[in-house]
Amino acid sequence: MPEVSVIIPVYNGAPFIADAVRTVLDQQEVDLKVIVIDDGSADETPNILAEFADRIHVVRQPNAGHIAARNRAAEMADSEWLAFLDADDQWDAEKLRKQLDIADEQTAMVYTERQNIGECERVARRQSDTDELTEGDLFEPLLYNNFITVSSVIIRRKWFEQLGGFSSEPFGSEDWDLWLRCAALGGITRVVREPLTRYRWHADSMTNNHEKMCYGRLKALRRALESHRGQQLPRTIARRALGRVWKCSAWYATPWKRSTAFCWYIRSAVYWPWDSSVYKAMVRCCTPDLRQARGGG
For FRET with 274, which of 55, 64, 213, 246 sits at 20 to 30 Å CA-CA? Predict the structure, then answer.
């Protein structure tokens, strides 16, 4: 098995970081290095990390954000593969081994099915219940939906370096941007169709910065559409993809900002008016039960 460098950025992650690290150290039959970037935590995170002693390599830095933390850890890594894990997510013990088992010489990335945990009343327990998990050349499928969870990914270090790492421009969608850039350059992606990654939903997650996340998604998508490969696509693909971005952002915003969500659904319909689910969602935006349940307006 080739060596894997596991990259974990953490900022004030005391409630979850110990469990995340343990699921990495429990990986079976894999040679790995664990690099944790403590991004200026002011809670008990440093003390919790110290308990793992020399089993992990901890670097503490002034707060610079998770993107800078991931990129810094990648610069320190010397393994053939890089793996990413957010501090509030977890892995199954066989995750890395099963990913490496299916990676051939042409493989740039491997991701897995995920299980949703935490405050996930609005989503299915398994990602594949709502998202089609595809593999191979993913450029066009990824334009419509970011179905790759960052905590599930392993990527060859040479590909990560060739792509220049994560970009800080598309706020909250730097992972989608990286997958799209990889696919645009011909990177082949494989998938393990088992829920070996546990993705945590909670109130403090970045998906609740609705406006920044929305425009981050738009930035990532437009960058892909402006690439050499994106410019070769039919205009209908671009319009449908833009409609999907506005629809996705509206879905996230609906329980908290119904008026914003309604406007974003309208923008989705302008780009792609043939999606009947958009109009059904607009009707749901006008029902009072969502505001009562979530306290939004």
Answer: 213
The whole-angstrom separation of Cα 236 and Cα 131 is 21
Residue 69 lies in a domain: yes
Q: pLDDT digits over 220-229, tens only?
A: 999 999 999 9
Confidence class for position 205, pLDDT limits 50, 70, 90 = low
The answer to which of 34-48, 53-67, 119-133, 195-209 has the lowest mean pLDDT is 195-209
Look at the pTM and tell me if it is higher than 0.90: yes
pLDDT-based confidence at residue 287 (cuts at 50, 70, 90): confident
User: Which residues, including other chains, have CB under 8 Å from residue 197's CB and lie 6 or more apart?
Assistant: 89, 90, 91, 92, 95, 112, 113, 114, 115, 149, 151, 152
End position of a domain, from candidates 156, 176, 201: 201
Q: Find out whether 156 and 197 touch, Cβ atoms under 8 Å.
A: no
Specify whether the CB–CB gap between 103 and 110 falls below 8 A: yes
- E strands in 142-289: 154-156, 188-201
State how far the Cα of 76 lies from the Cα of 284, in Å rounded to an integer.
48
**Amino acid 76: pLDDT:** 97
Q: What is the residue whose two structure tokens read 């730097």? A: 174
Contact 166, 79 (CB under 8 A): no
Please indicate, yes or no, whether residues 160 and 277 belong to a single structural domain of this protein.
Answer: no
Which domain covers residue 282, as residue numbers? Answer: 235-297
- In a domain, residue 292? The reply is yes
Same structural domain for residues 185 and 259?
no
Give the residue-averaged pLDDT of 97-102: 98
Q: In this structure, what token pair is assigned to residue 142?
A: 């990824």
Domain membership of residue 219 (yes or no) is no
Considering the domain architecture, whether residues 84 and 189 belong to the same structural domain is answered as yes
